[in-house]
Design goal:
The complex is a heterotetramer, with two copies of chain A (291 residues) and two copies of chain B (376 residues).
Chain A lengths: L10 E4 L4 H13 L3 E5 L7 E2 L2 E4 L2 H8 L3 E4 L3 H13 L4 E4 L6 H14 L2 E3 L5 E4 L3 E4 L8 E8 L2 H13 L4 E6 L10 H10 L5 E7 L4 H10 L5 E7 L23 H10 L3 E3 L5 H11 L1
Parallel strand pairs in A: 1-2, 1-5, 2-4, 5-6, 6-7, 10-11, 10-12, 12-13, 13-14
Antiparallel strand pairs in A: 3-4, 8-9, 8-11
Helix pairs in contact in A: 3-4, 6-7, 7-8
Chain B lengths: L4 H10 L8 E4 L14 E5 L12 E4 L2 H12 L10 E6 L3 E12 L4 E7 L13 E6 L6 H9 L5 H20 L2 E12 L4 E3 L2 E5 L8 H13 L2 H8 L3 E4 L4 E5 L2 H13 L6 E4 L7 H13 L5 E8 L4 H14 L6 E7 L5 H7 L8 H11 L5
Parallel strand pairs in B: 12-14, 14-15
Antiparallel strand pairs in B: 1-4, 2-3, 2-4, 5-6, 5-8, 6-7, 8-9, 8-10, 11-13
Classes of the chains: A alpha/beta (291), B alpha+beta (376).
C-alpha cells in the first residue's frame, strides 16, 4: 500500500496549459499517474496531449471523476486555485509552488481542514508512491517500491536520500515532500500518522532541517507507544544562526531550532539519526532492523 | 525580511500602537539637523541582527554633546557584523515594568501564535518560556481565549486587558500587512500606567511582494545594500548566505545545499557559502552571476557545483556549465556533481569541455576538500 | 469617509495595483514646482463629491501653458459645492476599453460585495446593473466563485483573470485597511493589454480610527476643513449636514432627526440642517456648540429641539437647555419637544426659565414653521 | 408570545461594572428582565446591585444558566465581547454600541451564524417585549403588550413610533431595533421571518430610512404569499443624496436608495406606507384591518 496517492487517484492539473503543466502531463503519465483532466479558465474544450481541458475544477470533476489536483499556477494565484480544488471536492491537492505567501498557506490549510481534504505544499517536490503514481517532478529512477515511508522538508534532499536507500535495496511505500515553509498543508505529524496507519510501511525515514519545530512532531511520534521505527537526517549542521537558509522555515531562531538540539531531541526519542548524508543508509538499516 | 526598529515602529504607530516619539539620524545627516526636544534620550543603533543591547547598541545620553559623541561612535561600530546607517533617538522612558508580547507565524499553530511573558527584556530566551496562544488563521483570534491563558500568568487585570487588546491589534495587522513576526520586547508599562512599545521587531513575508509596495521596496533596498556581484545573484532569485570557509557551494534546493555544506565539513573542509540557485533560472543566465560572485570572492578557493534536479533537467544544467566555463576568466577549480532528471546526458556534454561529473556527493566533496588544501 | 482620488490611488498603489504615475498640484504651489514629464495629461479636480467629470473637473491638456490655464480655472471652480485644494495631473491614457469594478460593504451580502460591469465610465448608473458577487466576510472570497459569475458577462478571459486577481486584492485590502468602498471606474485596459485604475474612489470606516493612524488623521483633517462653529460640534461627535431651509433642527438619533425634518417639510417649512447630537455628551457641554453654530448661521431663523431619549434622560437635557439659554446671546426663537425617559420632570425645570415643552412633534413643528415665516 | 426575548431569557451583562452596565441592571430589572449575571474580567466575585460578577461569559453561563448577553463595552472591544458571548453558548447577544467598525460587525455576524445564535446590533436601542422584558434603554411607557411586531433601523424613531401606536391602543409583541449600520446582526429579513412565525404577531410595523437596501427585504416579504400585513414609515424625504445622515447606512448612494423609490417599492409590494410620522397610526390601522 501507500499513503495519499496510488493508481486510484484521478488527477487533474490546474494551470495545465502552462509550461510546467504540459511537462507534468507527459512526465507523470509516463510514470503511470492516472491523468484525467486539465483546468485552464478560458481554454475549455482544448486538449493538452490527450487530456481534456475544462473551465473549472468543478466541471472537470463532474465530467471526469477527478478527485486529486496538481496545481501549477503563479504564486499569487495558488491560493485561489488550491481552494477551488479543495471546495470542489478533491481529496488531495498538491501545490509545489515556492514563493507562496505564508498567509495564503494558512488560508489553504484552514480550507483543507474544513473540507476534510489533504493539501500537500507549498514549496514541495510533491509526492510519489513508487511503481504506482507520482505527483511532482522527482527523478523516477531514485525510487523503487518497498516498505519505507519517506517524509522530507526539502525537494532535492528527498531525491538524494531516496536514491541512497533505493541503491541499498530499500524501497518506499510513499515519499512525501511536506515542504520548506513554516505553515504546511501536511505537517510531519500528519504524514507520520498516515504512515503509521499504512500496513505496508514498516519504517519511516525523515529528512529534516535546522529551523522551525517540525522535528518535535517526529520526536513525539517516535517516543509514542507502538510507533514504527524512524530514521532521520537533519541537515544544516554548518548553518549559522539567524540566517534564512533558502527555505522560509530553515532559520535557527533559538537554540532548540539548531542542529545539535534537534539531533539530541530525536535520539532521545529513539530515532535512528544519521550524522550526515553518508550515514542515511546505515540509519535506515538500523531502523528496519528494529521494525 | 527583518525591518529596522524605526520602520517597525512606524508600522506599529500606523495601526494605533503607542510608540516613543522618536527621531531618526541617518548616516551623513548633519548633527545640527537632528532635532531632539529634551534629554535624556536613548540612542539606538538600527541594525537587523539581534543582541545589539549587549554590544552597546543602545545608550542613554544626558545632553546634546553626549548624543553627538555616542552617535559618532555608533555609526562606526559593527553590531552583529552590521554597521548602522540609521540611529533612532527616543525619549528615555519612565519604565514601571517590562513584559514581552509577540505574534508570529508558527507551524504548530497552523498560522499565528501569540506569545506573552510577564517579564520582558534582553534575557527573554533564558527565562520561563512565554505562554502560547495558538490562533491559527488570523480571523480565529479570540479575546476570551487569550484572556484565559493570560489569567494564569498575569495578575494585573488592567494591564492584562491592555495586552489582550494589543495582541488583537497585532494579529490583525500581521495578517493585513503580511508580517511573519511582530515582537514587542520590552512591552513597557510607563509610570502613568500607559502601555508603550519600547522596542519592536517586525519581519515581513517577502513572497507577498506582489501585493505590497513596501515589501517590494524593501526587497529592492536589500539588493541595493548588496555589492554588485551579490546583487546580480539576487536579481536571479538566488539565495545566498556567506560563511567562513573556502569551498564555494553552488547548489539547488535548500536541503541539498545544506547537505553538501555539512558533508564538506564532515570531510574536513569548510563551506564558503550557502548558495541555492534553484529558485531562479537554472540556465547560463542564472548560473553566470553565481560563478562571477564566487570567482571574485578571495576567500573561495574551490567551487563545488552540486545539483540534484527533478524539474531541473541535468542536460540543461550541463550545457549551462559548458557555456559559463567558456566565458569564465577565473582559474579556480570547479568540481561537479550533477544528478537527477536526464543525468545520463551529462557525460556527453561534459566531455565537450573536459569536465568530469562525479557520481556521488562523497567523491565530489572529497575532491573539493583536497583542492582547497586538504582536510584540516 | 471619502478619500480624495489621489489618496485613494496612493492606497491602491501601496497594495500593488497599477495606477497612473500622477503628480499632485496643491493650491498655492508655484506652477514652476509642478513637474510634468510629458504631454498630453489629464488634469483632475480632487473633490469628494461625485459627478466631477460632467462639470469639467477632468480636462485633457496638450501643453504646459494649457495646463496652467486649466489649473487656475479649476482651483476657482466649485464641483458639487466643493472647491478643490488639490489637482491630480496624470499622463493621458491610451485606453483600449473601460470597465467597472468595485468592492463595497453591503448589508445583503453580510459583508463585502464585488460589483463588475464590462462597461465602465461616467454613466455606470444608467446602464445594465453590474453583476454581484456576495463575498460576505472577507476571508470567504473565492476566485472560482467570482469567475463563475464573470464568465456570464465578460468574454475576454485574459481580462477576466486580471479582474479576478484585482478583485481579490481589493477585498483583502478593504478588510486590511477598513475600507467600506473601493471603486475603480473606469478600470482601464490599455492598448498594450495592461490593467490600470484610471479613477478610484475609496471610502474608509471612520469608526476604525482607533486602529488606523490614517483614518484618525483624515478625521482630524475633516474637522480642520470645517469652520470653527462646526469644528466645535464635530469635536462633540455631533453629526451635521447642512440643508437649504431656515429651521435649525437639534435632535437625537438619526431616524428621529430625519423624522422631524420630514415633518417640517410636511407642515410647509424647510429644515436648515440635520444635526444629531446623540453620539456625543447630551449635556450643556454637548449642546452649547450646537446652539452656537445655528445661532451664527444667518439662514437659521428658528431652532427646533426635538429629542426622544431612552438612555438620554430628559431631566438632564432640560437642565442643559436651561444652562445654555442662560448664557446664550442670540434671540432666535427655540421650540422644544422633549420626550422619553423621565420626561415627567421636564416641565418643572422648564418653568424655571420660562420654556414650554410641546407634548407632540406636530405642535412643536407647527410652531417652528409659523415662527420661521409660515407655510410657503 | 414574542420574538427572541421574554421572561425565559436569563440575561448576563458584559461590562457590567461600567456606568451603562450599572444603569441597565437597575432599569431593565425594574421592567422585569431576568438579570442573572454580570461579566467583568478582573472583577469576579464582586456584585453590581445583587447581580454576581464573573470573570468570563463561560463561567457566568455555567454558574447561573445565563443564555442571553447584553454587551456594554467600548466600541473597540465589542467584537471580542460579542464573540465571547456567542461562542460561550448565548442564544441572543445584544450590542447597542454605535461606532463599531463595520468589519467587526461582519465578523460577529459570521460567528453568530456559525453558532446558531442571534446577534442584535450594533448601533441599536436593543429590543423589548412589552410586559415581559427589555434589553435596552427604551422608555418603558412607550410600549404596551399587543399583537404588532415592530422593526426599526433607528432608536429614537422606534420610541416615537411605538408611543404613537401605543397611545392609539395598538400594543406590540416585540419591538426590535435592527440598527443603523449597513451590516446588521439581525436584518429586517430575519426579524420579519421571526415575526412571521410568531402566532401572536398579527401585523408588522417597519420603521426605515433612506439609504441602503434593507427595505427591499421588507418589500420581498410583503409581496410573498401568506405574508402578514405590514405598515411602514421611511424617514429622510428631505435628506439630500450623497450625505451620511448620522447612521452609516443612511446615505442615498443611488436612486433606488432614495425616499421616493423606497416608498414606491414598498407600496407596490402591498405595504401600508405612512407618509410621515403623522400617518403612522393610520397606516398601522390599515394593516391591522387587513390582518
Amino acid at each position: 500500500m501507500s499513503i495519499l496517492l496510488d493508481k486510484s487517484n484521478r488527477v487533474l492539473i490546474q494551470g495545465v496549459t502552462g509550461q510546467m503543466g504540459q511537462f507534468f502531463v507527459e512526465d507523470a503519465r509516463k510514470y503511470g499517474t492516472n491523468m484525467v483532466a486539465g483546468v485552464s479558465p478560458g481554454r475549455a474544450g482544448t486538449k493538452v496531449g490527450d487530456v481534456p481541458v475544462f473551465a473549472s475544477v468543478a466541471i472537470a470533476c463532474k465530467e471526469t471523476g477527478a478527485d486529486t489536483a496538481m496545481v501549477f499556477v503563479p504564486p499569487s494565484a495558488v491560493l485561489g486555485a488550491t481552494i477551488e480544488a479543495i471546495e470542489s471536492g478533491c481529496r488531495l491537492v498538491v501545490a509545489t509552488a515556492d514563493e507562496m505567501p505564508v498567509l495564503d498557506a494558512i488560508e489553504v490549510r484552514a480550507a483543507a481542514r474544513a473540507n476534510g481534504a489533504v493539501f500537500v505544499g507549498p514549496n514541495t517536490p510533491g509526492l510519489i508512491s513508487p511503481g504506482k503514481a507520482k505527483m511532482g517532478f522527482m527523478p523516477s529512477f531514485c525510487y523503487t517500491p518497498g516498505n519505507v515511508g519517506v517524509i522530507s522538508r526539502s525537494g532535492s534532499l528527498s531525491y538524494e536520500g531516496s536514491k541512497r536507500i533505493t541503491l541499498a535495496g530499500i524501497g518506499q511505500t510513499t515519499v512525501v515532500g511536506i515542504g520548506g515553509d513554516p505553515v504546511k498543508g501536511t505537517t510531519a505529524a500528519e504524514a507520520l500518522a498516515l504512515f503509521h496507519k499504512d500496513p505496508d510501511t514498516k519504517a519511516i525515514l525523515y529528512l529534516g532541517e535546522i529551523g522551525g519545530s517540525e522535528e518535535t512532531f517526529v520526536a513525539e511520534y517516535a517516543a509514542s507507544s507502538g510507533a514504527k521505527a524512524v530514521a532521520a537526517l537533519i541537515v544544516g549542521k554548518t548553518a549559522p544562526p539567524g540566517k534564512k537558509m533558502g527555505h522560509a522555515a530553515a532559520l535557527i531562531g533559538s537554540k532548540a531550532e539548531g542542529h545539535a538540539a534537534k539531533q539530541k531531541m530525536l535520539r532521545d526519542a529513539g530515532v535512528f539519526v544519521a550524522d550526515g548524508l553518508g550515514q542515511v543508509v546505515e540509519a535506515m538499516r538500523a531502523a528496519l532492523a528494529r521494525a | 525580511m527583518m525591518m529596522l526598529e524605526c520602520d517597525a515602529k512606524r508600522l506599529l504607530a500606523s495601526v494605533g500602537v503607542n510608540v516613543p516619539a522618536g527621531t531618526v539620524w541617518r548616516r551623513g545627516d548633519a548633527a545640527a539637523s537632528v532635532k531632539v526636544e529634551s534629554f535624556p534620550v536613548a540612542v539606538k543603533a538600527q541594525v537587523r541582527s539581534g543582541g545589539r543591547g549587549k554590544q552597546g547598541g543602545v545608550q542613554k545620553v544626558a545632553d546634546r554633546a553626549a548624543l553627538e559623541v555616542a552617535a559618532k561612535k555608533m555609526f562606526d561600530t559593527e553590531f552583529g557584523g552590521e554597521k548602522p546607517d540609521v540611529l533612532l533617538i527616543e525619549p528615555w522612558l519612565a519604565i514601571e515594568r517590562e513584559s514581552y508580547l509577540s505574534v508570529a507565524v508558527d507551524g504548530r499553530a497552523e498560522g499565528y501564535v501569540v506569545l506573552y511573558s510577564p517579564q520582558g527584556g534582553m534575557d527573554i530566551e533564558e527565562g520561563v518560556p512565554p505562554v502560547r496562544y495558538e490562533v491559527g488563521a488570523p480571523w480565529n483570534f479570540r479575546v476570551h481565549r487569550l484572556r484565559e491563558i493570560l489569567e494564569k500568568v498575569e495578575s494585573d487585570y488592567q494591564w492584562r486587558e491592555k495586552v489582550i487588546a494589543l495582541a488583537q491589534r497585532l494579529v490583525r495587522s500581521a495578517a493585513a500587512q503580511d508580517c511573519t513576526t511582530i515582537e514587542i520586547n520590552p512591552l513597557v508599562k510607563l509610570s502613568d500606567g500607559a502601555l508603550i512599545a519600547a522596542d519592536a521587531k517586525v519581519a515581513r513575508d517577502e513572497w507577498a511582494h506582489f501585493r505590497s509596495a513596501e515589501i517590494n521596496a524593501e526587497r529592492e533596498a536589500e539588493k541595493g545594500r548588496a555589492d554588485p556581484y551579490l546583487r546580480a545573484c539576487l536579481d536571479m532569485q538566488h539565495m545566498y548566505v556567506k560563511l567562513d570557509g573556502d569551498i564555494g557551494v553552488i547548489s539547488g534546493g535548500a536541503g541539498m545545499t545544506m547537505g553538501a555544506m555539512d558533508m564538506i565539513a564532515e570531510l574536513g573542509g569548510s563551506p564558503a557559502c550557502f548558495l541555492d540557485c534553484s529558485p531562479g533560472p537554472t540556465s547560463t543566465r542564472g548560473y553566470r552571476p553565481a560563478f562571477a560572485m564566487l570567482d571574485a570572492d578571495p576567500a573561495v578557493k574551490v567551487i563545488l557545483v552540486s545539483v540534484f534536479g527533478g524539474g531541473t533537467q541535468m542536460q540543461r544544467v550541463a550545457t549551462s556549465m559548458k557555456e559559463v566555463m567558456a566565458e569564465r576568466k577565473s582559474s579556480k577549480p570547479v568540481i561537479y556533481r550533477l544528478d537527477g532528471t536526464n543525468v545520463d546526458q551529462v557525460d556527453g556534454i561534459f566531455k565537450e569541455f573536459g569536465a568530469h561529473n562525479h557520481a556521488t556527493l562523497e567523491t565530489a566533496v572529497a575532491e573539493a576538500v583536497k583542492l582547497a588544501g586538504g582536510a584540516r
